[in-house]
Amino acid sequence: MTTENARPVVVVLFGATGDLARRMVMPALVELHERGLLPAGWRLVGCATDPWDEQAFRARLEASLAEHERGLPSDWDSVRDRARYAGRGFTDADPGELPEVLTQVRRELADEGGSDPLVVYFLAVPPAAYPAITRGLGRHGLAPGARVVYEKPYGTSLADFEELDATVRQLLTEDQVFRIDHFLGKQAVQSIYALRFANRLFGSQWDARSIEQVQIDVPEALDVADRAAFYEATGAALDMLVTHLFHVASQVAMDPPTDLRDPRAIVAARDAVMSRFRPLDPARDVVLGQFDGYTDIDGVPSNSAQDTFVAARLWIDTDRWRGVPFVLRTGKRMALKAQRITLVMRPPEGPLAGEAPGPDTIEIDFNGPGHISVGVTVQTPGPDPELTLGRAGLALGDVPGSEPISAYASLLFDVLAGDHTLFTTSHCLRSAFTAFAPLQGPDRPLPLPYPPGSWGPPEAQRLTAPHPWMLEPSGDATGLTAPTVNPGRA
Ligand SMILES: NC(=O)C1=CN([C@@H]2O[C@H](COP(=O)(O)OP(=O)(O)OC[C@H]3O[C@@H](n4cnc5c(N)ncnc54)[C@H](OP(=O)(O)O)[C@@H]3O)[C@@H](O)[C@H]2O)C=CC1
Ligand SMILES: O=C1O[C@H](COP(=O)(O)O)[C@@H](O)[C@H](O)[C@H]1O
Q1: Ligand 1 pocket: which of 14, 125, 154 to mutate (most atoms within 8 A of CB)
Q2: Sorted alphabetically, which InterPro entries does this protein's record hold (predicted)?
């Protein structure tokens, strides 16, 4: 990654007081700064309704960086001085303090000798806020020349998505719009292309002839108490399934793009496979859960039926995958944090058919820099040879030249570079919401209870049959009790 662009950049962060801004976006911007990937003239303008002053926002930025694994940058003073705050919120009816703060920032940058800055509006707010902010950018004359980053979920249902999409298209051109799904920016999710297309060993097996089942398993130990309002309005399925898990599934399932160097070819391959996702069958293929104690959280109604866990079996009707279940699972307050794709191979044919103690597997852990493993049946060395399962792994962070970058830093860099390869499209999202729609209708199952620290409701076990969930200790073919990934901050 390099940048030669000296044009100043102003990142306006809507929702600057929120969880995403604190945990991911602000650290990512500063990560780019530390890596020398931002122009000399850059500014961060936090925007929210809280009546904070600049000092309070800078203290928030400092706390956000300090709690992040990278810590405070060595030139914290210089970073701090680049942060501004625009309070009183921002809507089409009232732009709050933002226009005035932007004018000051532009003046400051001009005084430093910079050219007119590129302004990036980052909407780290709930989807309900996207239309008013988008209209506001239009009405207050802030849209021309700007880039606008929308968080997921981009809409809350198929109908809501269509309405939002129409509003956005009315006010912005497609090259101005960046619809984030940050799982597409994760290093190991990006590395699926290399694994498949640069290795005959894997690429030749990547279809229904060799693969019996695909598991995409993203348990989280994380709580939701500090973002109860957002979470209660959203739930696990909308927060994670129709968004991140569907996008990871599309990365695994896409047919080979015609040209990996052409962003349009990659985006087209992702769009194409997503349009073949079969609408979910809630009764047969979905289990929802809610962890015990969820309704005791401040701001959550005592009768909430919101899901904090979802497991779903997705069918992808392409020649490559017809008949292969993609089983997807995620939830809050589960046993541990992990992010793993497991390709479960079909049993071998020939003289040892039926002898292997379990299926062989290809595993891609995509938390952090990533880890690739294979689970293979081997013969135990010794006088009494038996077949047993072993595992060999490769930490991507350890390969020569590795310099892992966080998903948000990578995606923010792409926004500045105007590169849409890792961003999702209206086409993709329309397909995702279409496949997801049955789960938002009358057939939505009620969430089943599960104890915090567990693997979710036991009913979810049936979705992977005849295999177990491979990540669980009982399903781990090698007998490991924890995944070979960084457990992360719970
Ligand atoms: N948290 C996470 O780990 C991740 C979150 N996301 C996405 O980021 C977005 C924000 O999530 P998160 O930060 O967790 O949520 P939070 O509830 O923590 O924060 C959202 C912020 O948005 C502002 N906000 C809330 N409602 C409105 C509204 N109606 N109009 C304008 N601003 C509003 C609030 O600030 P104020 O009201 O003061 O302006 C609040 O600080 C969501 O779309 C989520 O899906 C994506 C990836 C990861
Ligand atoms: O979008 C979201 O993602 C996070 C998980 O992201 P990660 O990069 O930390 O793995 C999830 O916790 C959150 O609920 C959701 O909104």
Answers
A1: 125
A2: G6P_DH (IPR001282), G6P_DH_AS (IPR019796), G6P_DH_C (IPR022675), G6P_DH_NAD-bd (IPR022674), NAD(P)-bd_dom_sf (IPR036291)
What ipTM goes with this model? 0.97
HEC profile of the chain: CCCCCCCCEEEEEECCCCHHHHHHHHHHHHHHHHCCCCCCCEEEEEECCCCCCHHHHHHHHHHHHHHCCCCCCCCHHHHHCCEEEECCCCCCCCCCCHHHHHHHHHHHHHHCCCCCCEEEEEECCCHHHHHHHHHHHHHCCCCCCCEEEECCCCCCCHHHHHHHHHHHHHHCCHHHEEECCHHHHCHHHHCHHHHHHCCHHHHCCCCCCCEEEEEEEEECCCCCHHHHHHHHHHHHHHHHHHHHHHHHHHHHHCCCCCCCCCHHHHHHHHHHHHCCECCCCHHHHEEEEEECCHHHCCCCCCCCCCCCEEEEEEEECCCCCCCCEEEEEEECCECCCCCEEEEEECCCCCCCCCCCCCCCEEEEECCCCCEEEEEEEEECCCCCCCEEEEEEEEEHHHCCCCCCCCHHHHHHHHHHHCCCCCCECHHHHHHHHHHHHHHHCCCCCCCEEECCCECCCHHHHHHHCCCCCCCCCCCCCCCCCCCCCCCCCC
Same domain, 302 and 362: yes
Distance 87 CA to ligand 1 centre (A): 15
Domain count across the chain = 2
Summarised one tens digit per residue, pLDDT across range 140-161 is 999 999 999 999 999 999 999 9
pLDDT of residue 384: 87
Binding site for substrate, by residue number, is 182, 186, 220, 239, 332, 337
Q: Which domain holds residue 241?
A: 188-403+448-464
Please identify every stretch of the chain with a pLDDT value under 50, giving residue numbers as ranges. 2, 4, 477-490
Same domain, residue pair 233 and 371: yes
**pLDDT for residue 485:** 35
Query: Does residue 227 sit in the same domain as residue 355?
Result: yes
> Do residues 144 and 256 share a domain?
no
Q: Distance from the CA of 130 to the center of ligand 1, in angstroms?
A: 11
What is the pLDDT, as a whole number, of residue 473? 83
CATH number at residue 122: 3.40.50.720
- pLDDT score recorded for residue 489: 26
- Is 244 known to be catalytic? yes
The pLDDT of residue 114: 84
Query: Is 31 close to ligand 2, i.e. is its CB under 6 Å away?
Result: no
Same domain, 311 and 255: yes
Q: Tell me whether residue 297 is in a domain.
A: yes
Q: Which residues line ligand 1 (CB under 6 A)?
A: 15, 17-20, 23, 48-50, 89, 124-129, 151-153, 182, 227, 229-230, 239
Question: Ligand 2 centre from 29 Cα, in Å?
Answer: 18
**298 & 252 share domain:** yes
From the candidates 68, 244, 371, 467, give the one annotated as an active-site residue: 244
Q: What is the pLDDT of residue 179?
A: 97
Give the global pTM.
Answer: 0.94
User: Is residue 415 one of the residues assigned to a domain?
Assistant: no
